[in-house]
Write a structure and sequence with these properties.
Blueprint: E1 5-10, H1 14-26, E2 32-38, H2 54-62, H3 66-72, E3 76-78, E4 80-84, E5 92-96, H4 109-118, H5 130-136, E6 157-159, H6 162-175, E7 179-182, E8 185-190, E9 197-202, E10 207-209, E11 212-215, E12 232-234, E13 243-249, E14 259-264, E15 267-273, E16 278-284, H7 291-300, E17 311-314, E18 318-320, E19 324-325, E20 328-330, E21 336-337, H8 345-358, H9 367-393, H10 401-408, H11 413-425, H12 438-447, H13 464-483, H14 488-495, H15 504-511
Parallel strand pairs: 1-2, 1-11, 2-7, 4-14, 11-20
Antiparallel strand pairs: 3-6, 4-5, 8-9, 9-10, 12-18, 13-16, 13-17, 14-15, 15-16, 18-21, 19-20
Helix pairs in contact: 1-6, 1-8, 4-13, 8-9
The structure holds flavin-adenine dinucleotide.
Length: 512
């Protein structure tokens, strides 16, 4: 019988512990041994608190109980992201986790909406998204199970405390046999012939051997970044933000079931509501604003009292040419980073882990598995990249240099073609793999001010009157159903109140 594949993970941030939890949770001890090395002295990036709905699939796949995870990470629910001032100053739209309306026959809903508009009728597309109406009214409940019912047309994600999530995953992984070693990696020994990693050396002098090394060391990219042929592909020209200032503040007002992103002079500010505090940060391009000015803007725009000084994080948009080479595979920030505008990094971690499990190798590692893994990673990165660029490129702001630069930049052909098809007749290509699905593109296209000049001709197969009646009744039924939903606050308190009893009352006070 084959001995278990020895996996060594370097790094204990979200990427490291998600990898350890999944490998130890899904594979047996006869298949793998999992060892994770992390350094308390170095610490983690400490941000990354908003997620996408796929996170639930990951938790279910690995065997994590949702309410337990949410209680222990001070989590709240997320139905989408509100973009304030993005298309133009004074605008607001939500990218919901769900569809707008329901398809009529083989025609996507928005074609009927465009048709009604072109016939001179006035309808706000947001009124047809269950997730948006619920988010704007601070309501939450789990989606319904009947696919014919309108309350099954959305999904949800989480906001959570990233350090508590890593801690939660650590307990989960260790209970399933993953071993943790505290220590700083100071050197890497290579096999003289293959060039593969033979072992890593810790400051303590200990040497750790393995079959597969997973680099989760964050922006340092300790293992994957050593290879001069595996350089970093820099996408700053399309995604110019390179710095974030992050600061938590006290909760205030309603516990909103959505992330908020507000466009600012040289970037944007996030607001992520957790049960006991709110996470905030200003993501900006240092080419367009000084750090002091960015810090002043951030601190002037907090909901509640700041709980700390702003912390600076520098980054570069882009990805490693190959996430997996030889017996070294990078997951998380070590493999690349696309700014957090659409909360995609943890999703990219998840996809890397799921693909690794799908293609799980034996010894010696077959290069065709590596090629396929890298192909899937590239696809994900490029699709997320285009979606993010859209937010910047399709703006009509002329109040600052960043927005003017973005409006005039030369975007990838893949995005240009997608935008042209949408404007021509509202067509949005559906991907087989990867983010994002058509409802996400639709909300950002429209939110950023693009309007289809025409619609799918099949929409004419229905009488216009019947279409209008359908729109009216759909809008009314969403409004009524959402009214009957519980408040998000109440739902969270009932389902997953923060485990830290000493801090939980803060949530009550804040909303009193
Ligand atoms: C400003 C900002 C906001 C973000 N917001 C979001 C968001 O809302 N949603 C989202 O999905 N993602 C977000 N992300 C991304 C998210 O934070 C990361 O994807 C996630 O935290 C994973 O990080 P990581 O585990 O790869 O790296 P890190 O958290 O940096 O962990 C690196 C680990 O490597 C260890 N290490 C490093 N060097 C050594 C060494 N020599 N020896 C031993 N150990 C070592 C460290 O101790 C640490 O444990 C954001 C990122 C930034 C920069």
């Amino acid at each position: 019988m084959n001995r278990p594949l020895e996996i060594v993970i370097v790094g204990g941030g979200t990427a490291g512990w998600m990898s350890a939890a999944a490998l130890a949770g899904v594979l047996t001890r006869e298949q793998v041994s999992v060892r994770l090395v992390e350094s308390d002295e170095i610490g983690t990036v400490g941000v990354g608190e908003a997620t996408l709905p796929q996170m639930k699939e990951f938790n279910d796949y690995v065997g994590i109980i949702e309410s337990d995870m949410m209680r222990k990470t001070n989590a709240t629910f997320k139905l989408g992201i509100e973009f304030v001032d993005w298309g133009y100053k004074g605008s607001s739209y939500i990218h919901p986790f769900g569809t707008h309306g329901k398809p009529t026959g083989s025609v996507a809903f928005h074609h009927q909406w465009v048709r009604a508009l072109q016939a001179g009728h006035s309808y706000d597309i947001e009124d047809f998204s269950y997730a948006i109406v619920a988010a704007r009214n601070n309501k939450f409940e789990f989606p319904g199970g009947d696919p014919a019912a309108i309350n099954s047309t959305y999904s949800y994600a989480y906001h959570f405390d990233a350090s508590l999530y890593a801690r939660f995953l650590r307990d989960f992984a260790e209970a399933r046999g993953a071993r943790r070693t505290e220590g700083k990696v100071v050197d890497v020994a290579l096999h003289p012939e293959s060039g593969d990693i033979a072992s890593i050396k810790l400051q303590s002098g200990e040497s750790i051997t393995g079959d597969l090394f997973i680099d989760c060391s964050g922006f340092r990219a300790l293992l994957i970044g050593r290879d001069p042929k595996n350089s970093f592909e820099d996408w700053t020209k399309w995604l110019p933000c390179d710095t974030a200032l992050a600061v938590p503040c006290a909760s205030a007002g309603q516990l909103t079931p959505h992330t908020r992103s507000t466009a600012r002079e040289a970037g944007w500010q996030w607001r992520i509501p957790l049960q006991v505090r709110t996470g905030n940060g200003y993501v900006f391009s240092s080419a367009f604003i000084s750090e002091d000015a960015a810090a002043a803007t951030l601190m002037q725009n907090l909901d509640g009292a700041p709980l700390d000084e702003p912390r600076r994080i520098r980054f570069k948009a882009g990805r490693r040419l190959k996430s997996w080479r030889g017996n070294c595979l990078a997951i998380g920030l070590a493999s690349g980073f696309l700014e957090p505008l659409e909360s995609t990094s943890i999703y990219l971690i998840q996809m890397a882990i799921v693909n690794l499990l799908k293609l799980f190798p034996r010894k010696p590692i077959d290069p065709t598995l590596i090629d396929e893994f890298n192909r899937l990673v590239d696809l994900e990165y490029e699709r997320v990249r285009d979606f993010l660029i859209l937010h910047y490129y399709a703006n009509t702001r002329d109040d600052s240099e960043l927005w003017k630069y973005c409006r005039n930049m030369d975007v990838p052909d893949s995005l240009r073609e997608k935008m042209a098809l949408f404007v021509h007749r509202g067509h949005i290509e559906k991907y087989k793999d990867g983010l994002f699905a058509p409802p996400s593109w639709l909300s950002v296209f429209l939110g950023q001010g693009l309007r289809p000049k025409n619609y799918d001709r099949l929409a004419d197969n229905m009488e216009l009157d019947a279409t209008l009646t359908g729109l009216d009744s759909l809008r009314a039924s969403i409004g009524e159903r959402v009214k009957a939903m519980p408040d998000h606050d109440a739902f969270v308190r009932d389902y997953c109140p923060a485990a830290d009893a000493a801090r939980a009352p803060a949530m009550m006070d804040a909303h009193a």
